[in-house]
């Protein structure tokens, strides 16, 4: 069964959300496998789902300056 990569990443993030280090690690890995449009969707979803718990991590990962 084919699962869209974005949905797969969301599933993983939900499963590791109990641990902030694992969560950040998996979130950073998403940047290697997702397209730009998918990353934008992931960003929106992450802020909806996890901003109460991991706002600092989300800001660190998604708002990093582009070099």
Biggest pleated sheet: none
Structural class: mainly alpha
State which percent range the strand residues make up: under 5%
- Unreliable residue runs: none
Q: How many domains, in number, for the residues?
A: 1
Number of DSSP strand runs? 0
Q: What is the average of the pLDDT values?
A: 92
**Residues in helices, as a percent range:** over 70%
Global shape: globular
What is the C-alpha radius of gyration, as a whole number of Å?
11 Å
- Report the total helices: 3
Report the span from N to C terminus: 38 Å
The arrangement of helices and strands along the chain is HHH
Describe the protein's architecture and organization:
There is one protein chain. With 67 residues, the chain is mainly α. The protein has one domain. Helix content is 79%, strand content 0%. The chain is built from 3 helices and no strands. It has helices spanning 5-16, 20-33, 36-62. Helix 1 (5-16) packs antiparallel against helix 2 (20-33) and helix 2 (20-33) runs antiparallel to helix 3. The protein is globular. The N and C termini lie far apart (38 Å). 12% of the residues are buried. The model has no long low-confidence stretch (mean pLDDT 92).
């Amino acid at each position: 069964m084919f699962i869209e990569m974005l949905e797969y990443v969301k599933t993983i993030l939900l499963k590791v959300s109990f641990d902030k280090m694992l969560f950040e690690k998996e979130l950073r890995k998403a940047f290697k496998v997702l397209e730009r449009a998918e990353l934008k969707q992931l960003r929106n979803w992450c802020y909806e789902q996890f901003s109460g718990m991991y706002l600092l991590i989300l800001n660190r990962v998604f708002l990093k300056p582009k070099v």
